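Trying the structure run again after the queue cleared.
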Amino acid sequence: MSEVYFYHLTQTRLEVALPKILERALSADWSVELRIGIKAEEEPISDAIWKGPDESFLPHCSEDNDKLHDYPIVLSKSPLSEVRDCLIVIDQAELQENEVQKFKRVCLLFDSKNEIELMNARVTWKSLLDAGLKTSYWAEDNGKWTKKD
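Done. Tokens:
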């Protein structure tokens, strides 16, 4: 059964938190779809991934690349035709409850300083819970992610 992790960014910017979460997914030997919102700019996200620490190289490409299978991380604005192990949702990208089961894990990152992201995360949380899906909420606590009940 899929798990959905909600990551509530309260202290760290997305550009800092995202590479760390991607590293964890890759350390589990998962392929990742990083879905960004339709209105979001892809370039700053790509830059944040490339400009991480040298020891944590995170190869990735855009969904329009001809060789998606060569990259462990694919940036998309809509669902990929080839399902990956993990879906990470940022920048208010669309996530539908009927697609959650396709992935081993879905991670939804949202910023507490962005009211629209916060509202969307609450709506998504409720709809996934109502659908009977397994969800967990993670918040930052002194630089670490802590699972909250």
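The chain has a mean pLDDT of 92. Worth checking whether this holds up in the mutant runs.
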